[in-house]
Amino acid sequence: MAAYDFDTVIDRRQVPTSKWDRYPEDVLPMWVADMDFSVAEPIAAALRDRLEHPVFGYGGPGPASLRDLIAEDMRDLYGWTISPADVVFLPGVVPGFNQALKAIAQPGDSLVIETPVYPPILAAAGHWDLNRVDVPVLPVAEGSAVDVDRLTGALAGAAAFLLCNPHNPTGRVRTRTELEAVAEASLSSGAVIISDEIHCDIVYGGARHIPVAALSPEVARRTITLMAASKTYNIAGLKTAYAIIPDADLRRRFVAANLGMSEGANVLGLVATEAALRHGRPWKQALLSYLEANRDHLVARLARELPGIRLNSPEATYLAWLDCSALELGDAYRFFLDKAKVAFNPGPSFGGDDHHVRLNFGCPRTLLDEGIDRMVKALSQR
Ligand SMILES: Cc1ncc(COP(=O)(O)O)c(C=O)c1O
To answer: Tell me, what CATH number does 21's domain have?
Structure first.
């Protein structure tokens, strides 16, 4: 067996899960963004160790050792200097960007987002009575992921820009030039940048993640960065994330906007996060190799066997945004669910059209092949 096993198919129906419980047993779930891999051993070991201590009371503001580790990671990975005190632990990135919006925007203010996008980002403006301004993310063929002029126009007078980088569902990674343009447009309009960087670790060859706040201290002062170990290490159910907010006043406003709704993080999630960041890198490297091979396999099989489906090979994330418009399936999500017994995420839930679906390839290769086989068969029987 390889040092790390990503090939074994684990029966996740033995425990409650969002992914495997939603659909009947004959449906293969390739939707919600978690992976079908077991957790890295150093994380499991740290959790077992913590369980030896019999008390699970409130965890306080989060361990100093983890704050220090996050600060070290930002310096080592991105050359970004932060203070451990800049870190605010949270039960999730979604609560984090909603809390950020409460802190910085008033009802009626404008919030700029880039569509199609992760559904809770699409929904966030509605929670706070904000005016949502959508700017399209451009496909790889366009070169740049962002039409800077259009984004700059949208940001004029906006209170906030909710950036998703790397981008879910397109898997695009912003280049430094693009981020500089985005940051300049935000700074000149006075918009605060809320940067959802939850997929920052899952970036493939060639591309490199740059936190927008790492561009300059000036940008960092106007940015709330949201990160977590949850996507990379497949521990989303442990409900732990963190905001990095270097500006003390912005941080104070962010914390005050919690309003008793989502304070603090899960004590086991904090343990898992620390183990992941401290000991998980070899596992992560192996995971990235496996996922990158899955991505290439998916892209190659679709090009060969289902050329009517177009996709831009994702530079990041284990998500692929499939354009099925040439196949004229009508509602592509429905077609694949009913005829292929494969569950994707429907395009409209991201603000896209119903010719698009999002496929999750964070699974053993055999499951990925099973999903593609089912698609090929259903399409051949049309
Ligand atoms: C872009 C993005 N942000 C946030 C989340 C979820 O964050 P959390 O579970 O920490 O609230 C996801 C999950 O898929 C995501 O893709």
So the answer is: 3.90.1150.10
**Structural domains in the chain (count):** 2
Q: Whole-angstrom Cα distance, residue 255 to residue 247?
A: 12
* 337 lies in the same domain as 225: no
**15-30 tens-digit pLDDT:** 999 999 999 999 999 9
Confidence class for position 1, pLDDT limits 50, 70, 90: very low
Distance 95 CA to ligand 1 centre (A): 10
* Span from the CA of 93 to the centroid of ligand 1 (angstroms): 6
pLDDT tens digits, 307-356: 999 999 999 999 999 999 999 999 999 999 999 999 999 999 999 999 99
- Same domain? For 159 and 300 the reply is no
Q: Among 88, 94, 101, 203, name the best residue to mutate to test ligand 1's pocket (greatest count of ligand atoms within 8 A of Cβ).
A: 94
Beta carbon of 198 within 6 Å of any ligand 1 atom: yes
Pocket mutation for ligand 1, best pick of 19, 35, 168, 359 (most atoms within 8 Å of C-beta): 168
Q: What residue owns the CA closest to ligand 1's atom 9?
A: 92
Query: Which of 165, 231, 242 is the pocket-test mutation for ligand 1 (most atoms within 8 Å of CB)?
Result: 231
188 with 101, same domain? yes
Ligand 1, residue 241: give the atom nearest the CA. Answer: 10
The rounded Å distance from CA 376 to ligand 1 centre is 30
What is residue 260's predicted lDDT score, i.e. its pLDDT? 86
CA separation for the pair 57, 371 (Å, rounded): 43
Q: How high is the mean pLDDT of the chain?
A: 96
DSSP-assigned states of every residue in 83-134 = -GGGEEEES-HHHHHHHHHHHH--TT-EEEEEES--HHHHHHHHHTT-EEEE
Question: Has residue 32 been placed in a domain?
Answer: yes
Q: Which domain holds residue 326?
A: 12-41+281-380
Q: For residue 223, is pLDDT > 90?
A: yes
Cβ pair 92, 69 in contact under 8 A: no
| C-alpha span between 377 and 356 (Å, rounded) | 19
Does a structural domain hold residue 3?
A: no
